[in-house]
Design goal:
With 433 residues, this protein is mainly alpha-helical. It is built from 16 helices and 4 strands.
């Protein structure tokens, strides 16, 4: 859906109008959510490092929930396993759209963004392993530097007030979507412990009922909300990270509206679209910032910063985010473009792709989540959090410098994309032969 390249066509060229509208809607919400996310992370850091730091831990570790159902969890646990399920549900819907009607629906169209994103996951993990093995550290955190936080990246672009063309923003969004899929698979495969087969079977049965309801065109939130909560609880008790339930339900939701044939009522929006429009603001503006509030709280001192750059695990995370993501995404994009014969938009340069690759090193939300799962020792977990924060901030700063350097070019392209002399709401560039 996003990057509008085809074999032998322009890469990062003008997006089709319908795709541009869809991208704009998603980016608008994610940008606002990203600014709230930055605020929540800042509050967490100030709170932990203030005289009220003990109250932060008290709130984060306060338990609430029905004990009879085995869900007497801490506030921090609820934000990671509960609220983030909304984030992954929206990610599942976004991925379903890409697979059904977007750029990922055909191998030729999917090759470039998928190869770029996969390289952007494999290279950071490999770099982390090299650093840790060289320093005699713990390989368990190999997956931490794999993910890109699209909300954080868009918030950086909003603060810069840059005029980045829609195709560049869309390509960054596509990378994040594929990254999310990679993170989901990593969480499901590598961070599942002591599986409860009965609970897992119940969750699968619930998903089958969910699918049957979608196939039967059953409507009404009173069917899906209780069923979704049941699937989530069973997934949690199965030993699988509960956010996987959100992705599964997002992938099951129909993404194409019925056109009215075969005796079916015509739809203006599909169930997936309606759910996304309803939940995306809640995910971006509430769920992710609250997770950040209780995940980003880490004590900052000269000694703790020294640990980040001297211990192999946190150093591997920082280098994975800043160096690994950049090299992986840029090299993957360049090689995929060469093999698919996709011509780079002549108005842009490969330095623009490099700047996006640097910005993609911001791995805040999902990296923090995987860090909590990978490091069970509290001290190691704190070091991992500090490394994610440090790496994300370094990537944000470097990406901002590189993007701002080209803002004059971006402004010219943005203005050309948005000229609407006849004031009909559609830019003139889409109405030329």
């Amino acid at each position: 859906m996003r990057s509008s390249q085809r074999a032998g066509s322009a890469f990062l060229g003008l997006l089709p109008w319908t795709e541009r509208l869809s991208v704009a809607r998603a980016l608008r919400t994610e940008t606002v959510g990203g600014l709230i996310l930055l605020g929540a992370a800042a509050v967490a850091l100030v709170w932990v490092n203030s005289p009220l730091g003990d109250s932060y831990e008290s709130v984060r570790d306060w338990h609430v929930g029905p004990s009879a159902l085995g869900l007497d969890l801490s506030v921090g646990h609820w934000t990671a396993d509960g609220l983030l399920t909304l984030f992954f549900l929206v990610a599942g819907i976004e991925l379903k759209r890409e697979l059904v009607i977007g750029e990922l629906r055909t191998p030729a169209a999917a090759a470039l963004p998928v190869v770029a994103a996969v390289c952007g996951m494999v290279v950071p993990a490999g770099l982390y392993a090299m650093v840790v093995l060289g320093g005699g550290g713990d390989l368990g955190g190999w997956a931490v530097p794999m993910a890109t936080d699209i909300a954080f990246a868009l918030a950086v672009l909003a603060v810069l007030s840059t005029h980045l063309p829609a195709a560049l923003r869309a390509f960054l969004l596509t990378l994040a979507v594929v990254d999310d899929l990679g993170a989901i698979l990593v969480i499901a495969v590598f961070f599942t412990s002591g599986a409860n087969l009965w609970a897992l079977a119940g969750a699968v049965a619930g998903l089958l009922v969910f699918y049957a309801l979608q196939r039967a065109r059953v409507r009404g939130w009173w069917w899906y909300v209780p069923l979704g909560l049941t699937i989530w609880a069973l997934t949690y008790h199965a030993g699988v990270h509960a956010t996987v339930a959100g992705v599964a339900m997002g992938l099951i939701l129909r993404i194409t509206p019925d056109t009215g044939g075969a005796g079916r009522e015509k739809e203006t929006e599909s169930p997936g679209e309606r759910t996304e429009h309803l939940l995306r603001p809640l995910s971006a503006g509430v769920a992710v910032p609250l997770f950040a509030l209780f995940a980003a709280g880490v004590g900052v001192s000269l000694s703790s910063l020294g640990e980040v750059f001297t211990r192999p695990e946190p150093l591997g995370i920082v280098l994975g985010l800043v160096v690994g993501k950049t090299l992986g995404i840029f090299a993957g994009t360049y090689l995929a473009a060469r093999f698919t014969r996709a011509r780079l938009n002549p108005d842009l340069a490969w330095s623009d792709v490099f700047a996006l690759a640097v910005l993609a090193g911001i791995g805040f939300t999902v990296a923090l989540l995987i860090g909590e799962l990978a490091f069970t020792d509290p001290t190691d977990a704190e070091h991992a959090k500090a490394a994610v924060l440090a790496g994300s901030l370094i990537a944000a700063a470097l990406g901002a410098v590189l993007i701002k350097r080209r803002d004059r070019v971006y402004r010219r392209l943005w203005e050309a994309e948005n000229v609407d002399e006849d004031a009909d709401g559609i830019p003139d560039i889409y109405q030329r032969p």
